[in-house]
């Protein structure tokens, strides 16, 4: 039986009580390295994976009750869709606080109507976005990072502000903002970017 639970952005203080109990009581727990490191105080035998194919291989190798810990919320650009694509049945999904929720709370902005995208590990055509239609949030990676987005939008003639959040919920959390086209120092590839276009 495979269960998937959200571990939140990373800080164990914002892990749900329900997920804490699942971690303690599941026969087997699998997590990516960053999550395993954050939660080792709860359980010392969490199995570490660093790639999606490693996770899929471990899931398929045992009939044990298995809990897969995903960063953020597993249904928000998370592992749920990737696991299901491989035909693996998930018995239950437990939500966690997403990086989007956390970030928008920190910058005190509503996310009721934001458009959400992930450029994490994928190519993206920014010219296809309707920039007059609200604000836009991107999950980033080390290649398609905040400066990449800023430059891409500047090259398209988009004006506005960008809010950046890195290492969210960790001790070295870094949140800043700039105008589109300006470069910033990026401390990490783990981040969320909010684009607020100026609309004439």
Fold and architecture overview:
This protein has helices spanning 17-25, 33-39, 52-60, 79-85, 99-106, 146-155, and strands at 2-6, 28-32, 47-49, 66-70, 92-94, 115-118, 136-139, 160-166, 174-179, 191-197. The mean pLDDT is 93. By secondary structure, it is an alpha/beta fold. The strands form two sheets. Strands 3-2-4-1-5 form a five-stranded parallel beta sheet, sandwiched between helices. A five-stranded mixed beta sheet has the order 6-7-10-8-9, covered by helices on one side.
Briefly, what is this?
This protein has 200 residues and is α/β, with parallel strands linked by helices. It is 25% helix and 24% strand.
Features:
24% strand; alpha/beta; 200 residues; single chain; five-stranded parallel sheet
């Amino acid at each position: 039986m495979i269960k998937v639970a959200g571990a939140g952005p990373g800080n164990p203080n914002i892990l749900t009580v329900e997920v804490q109990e699942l971690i303690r009581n599941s026969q087997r727990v699998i997590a990516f390295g960053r999550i395993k490191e954050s939660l080792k105080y709860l359980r010392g035998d969490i199995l570490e994976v660093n790639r999606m194919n490693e996770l899929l291989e471990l899931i398929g190798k045992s009939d044990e009750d298995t809990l897969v810990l995903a960063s953020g919320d597993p249904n928000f650009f998370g592992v749920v869709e990737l696991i299901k694509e491989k035909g693996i049945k998930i018995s239950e999904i437990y939500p966690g606080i997403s990086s989007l929720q956390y970030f928008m709370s920190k910058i005190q902005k509503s996310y009721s109507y934001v458009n959400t995208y992930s450029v994490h590990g994928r190519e993206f055509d920014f010219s296809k976005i309707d920039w007059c239609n609200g604000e836009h949030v991107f999950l980033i990676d080390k290649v398609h990072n905040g400066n990449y987005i800023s430059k891409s939008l500047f090259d398209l003639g988009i004006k506005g502000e960008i809010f950046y959040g890195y290492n969210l919920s960790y001790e070295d959390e870094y949140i800043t903002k700039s105008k589109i086209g300006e470069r910033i120092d990026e401390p990490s590839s783990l981040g969320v970017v909010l684009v607020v276009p100026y609309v004439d």
